[in-house]
Every structure is written in structure tokens, then in C-alpha cells.
Amino acid sequence: MLSPIGESCQYETWNRQVKMWAILSGIEGNLVAYEAVLDDIQKHFVQVEQLYILGDLVGPNSSAEIVVQRVRQPQKLQPQVCIGWWEEQCFNLYGLGGNSEAQELLSQYDGDTIKLLWNSVSRETVQWLRQQHFGFVELDCLLIHASNVSVSDQLTPETSVWKIIDRLQRADVNQIFCGRSGMVFEYVIQNGSVASTVSTLAGDQPSQAISLQEKRLIGVGSVGRYPGKATYTLYRPGSNKVQFQTVYY
Question: Measured between alpha carbons, how far is 144 from 218 in angstroms, rounded to an integer?
Fold first, then answer.
């Protein structure tokens, strides 16, 4: 059974001695938002041991290069970065991606935005971004921008349960943390089983049952997409608890 938990959770006082992960996505070159989140992490959650940035580190923002430098030369914790949708568009613009015509970018944004992206992200930065991971598998978790299919594969609470199960099984994990939608949510597939039947011209094939342990899809929010409001996620591996944080700046 698929059960959406919601876009927020009740505030919990976290033990400062418990090690946690801070999971960010969608900074999109927004330096002010990124610094506000780093300040929030430092102020309240000093025992964060891993800092993940799940794609869209850069974007059409004049401060994108400064954000990249902050990430490459951090004052404290070294972020682990994977590529996202905006990084893929930069690769395409520089002729280094799989679609040099940048059709997806052109279909969604006007010429001014594309020009700003080009001016905001240097070739040197693009080369560094190309060295980053597509995603991370840690414990029983996949941390990724969209899904293990592509950086454009957006997963939300409205996504089909079959699609979510497929993405989980492809990665052989019980939890996916993703940032493509920019939303914060926790989606639980409860213990149970699902049955599927394939129909062909020869008739229905034998039904197949899949047994499932509890699995989760977690939207980690967006740091820089929405002016004045940054959202990110804290995860405590020891207890498997998730907390969504909102920072107004």
C-alpha cells in the first residue's frame, strides 16, 4: 500500500550527539540561500557528518561561480555533489552532453535565461561538474537528483507506485532521496505484496507477485528555487528518521 506522509513533519528536538546527514538540492547558483542553509546547519545541527548536494548546484544565476567555489573550498564539511538537470543543460550548451542542441532547455526557457546560464557557468566549472557522480548509494539509500533513469525523471507523491517500485528495484535500495521536484515529502510503500499480469496477443500471462519490505521515496526540497525560502532535509541513519527544515532568508 502506498501512503503519502505529507510535505512537512512535526518539529523534533534532535540530539546533538547523534550523527546525521544534511541533504540539499536545487541551489541553482543562489549564494544567499546556500549560505543561509549552511548557517542553519551549523547553528542547530553540529553533528552533521555528511553533506550531500543532489544536483542543480548551478543555474541561471550570476552568483553560480561563487557557489561552486564555496563547495569546492568549504570552510568545514566537504559536500558530496551529484549532477542534476541544470548541470546536464550546461553540458549540452558546451557540446559535452548527449544533446548538443539542448532541446529540453530550449523548450522550457527563453533566450534570456539560456544566455544567463551560459554567462553564469564557465567551461572550467562545467569540466569540474562532469567529474561529479550521477548519484550515491549509502547503506540502503539512493541519493540522486531525479532517479537512476535520468536527471529529468521527476518523482513526486503523484508518481505511479509501479514507477517508484521500478526505480527502487533498479537501484536495489529501500529508500530514494531525490530533489528534482523541489518538493519536500515522504512517501511510504508499506509492507505487503503487489501482483502484476502481462497481457499479450496470446492472452494473459501468469500473474507474478512481488513481496515488499517497507520502502520510501523522499523529496529533499529546494534550497534556491524559491526566493526567500529554502528547504532541505536532515536524515538520521541510526533511527531512519527524516526531518524537513525550512529556512527563511
Answer: 11
Q: Which of 20, 18, 15 is nearest to 242 (CA)?
A: 20
Alpha carbons within 13 angstroms on the beta-carbon side of residue 87 total 29
Distance between first and last Cα of the chain? 38
All residues at 6 or more sequence positions from 188 whose CB lies less than 8 Å from its CB, including other chains = 2, 3, 4, 5, 214, 215, 216
Nearby residues of 223 by Cβ (< 8 Å), 6 or more positions away: 24, 25, 26, 27, 28, 30, 33, 34, 37, 230, 231, 232
Q: Which three cell numbers stand for residue 143?
A: 541519493
Give the distance from CA 222 to its chain's centroid: 8
pLDDT at 57: 98
* Cα 17–chain centre separation: 26
The span from the CA of 235 to the CA of 202, in Å, is 48
Low-confidence ranges of the chain (pLDDT < 70): 1-18, 45-46, 191-212
**Separation CA 156–CA 187 (nearest Å):** 9
Q: 22: helix, coil or strand?
A: strand
- Contact assessment for residue 29 and residue 225, using Cβ atoms and an 8 Å cutoff: no
Grid coordinates standing for 65? Answer: 561561480
Ranges assigned E (strand) in 75-128 = 80-82
Report the C-alpha gap between 222 and 201 in whole angstroms. 46
